[in-house]
């Protein structure tokens, strides 16, 4: 079997991260959650007391990232997701992060990457591309449960507003906007639980590989 690159894209809280992790474990492939790159870039700026739209500082922060020193807990907070989508709209930051992502995808066996532009920009030649979606309401519900599980404050209406704002910003930006690649298979997880969604994703990969 030749190398298998799986590109998973989709909006915030669509379940793409969970699916990517599960697929990677199933096929024994390395997994990169590319949202963490933008989150870590934003986090570095905030820690230095710098503005999120300071292009030079943001590019330097992106260049300085190392995949091994991610403080997951802090990076995955709501605030950091919001901040990430601001730095992610800067073309210079995106350009800086392309190589790192492509190198990750270039390993012998293949890889699973999840984000917004994996199928369209980072790995246009990926063997399998899945665009994971779910209604904004379902995504907000899941995010609220996830945050509550981690002991974070989680008001459903606030989270729904957040999710919609992030969709809007990610879809409207001029560089690498959130949209399915022409050859992506769309998987709507609104009515699926995790097992159901994983089964559906596995079927898509098996058909496409
Ligand atoms: O997926 P996650 O919610 O962690 O992503 C945080 C933000 O990073 C997104 O809202 C998006 O603006 C940005 N992002 C991106 N391209 C990716 C992954 C994430 O623009 N490939």
From TrEMBL:
Annotated ranges, domain Cytidylate kinase: 6-200
Record bears the keyword Cytoplasm: yes
Subcellular location, record wording: Cytoplasm
Protein origin, superkingdom: Bacteria
Key word Transport present: no
Enzyme Commission numbers on file: 2.7.4.25
Main location: cytoplasm
Binding site for ATP: 10-18
Family label: Belongs to the cytidylate kinase family. Type 1 subfamily.
Record-given protein name: Cytidylate kinase
Species in which this protein is naturally found: Methylocystis heyeri
Gene name, Swiss-Prot/TrEMBL: cmk
């Amino acid at each position: 079997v030749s190398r298998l690159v799986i590109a998973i894209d989709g909006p915030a809280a669509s379940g793409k991260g969970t699916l990517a992790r599960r697929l990677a474990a199933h096929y024994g492939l390395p997994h990169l959650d590319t949202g963490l790159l933008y989150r870590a870039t934003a986090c570095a700026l905030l820690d230095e007391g710098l503005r999120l739209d300071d292009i030079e500082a943001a590019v330097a922060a992106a260049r300085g990232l190392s995949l091994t020193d991610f403080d997951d807990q802090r990076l995955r907070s709501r605030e950091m997701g919001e901040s990430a989508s601001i730095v992610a709209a800067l073309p210079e930051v995106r350009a800086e992060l392309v190589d790192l992502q492509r190198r990750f995808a270039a390993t012998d066996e293949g890889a699973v990457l999840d984000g917004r532009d994996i199928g369209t920009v980072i790995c246009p030649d990926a063997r399998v591309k899945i665009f994971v979606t779910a209604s904004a309401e379902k995504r907000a519900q899941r995010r609220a449960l996830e945050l509550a599980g981690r002991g974070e404050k989680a008001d459903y209406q606030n989270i729904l507003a957040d999710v919609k704002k992030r969709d809007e910003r990610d879809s409207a930006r001029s560089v690498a906007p959130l949209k399915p690649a022409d050859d992506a298979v769309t998987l709507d997880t609104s009515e699926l639980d995790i097992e159901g969604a994983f089964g559906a994703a596995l079927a898509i990969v098996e058909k496409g590989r």
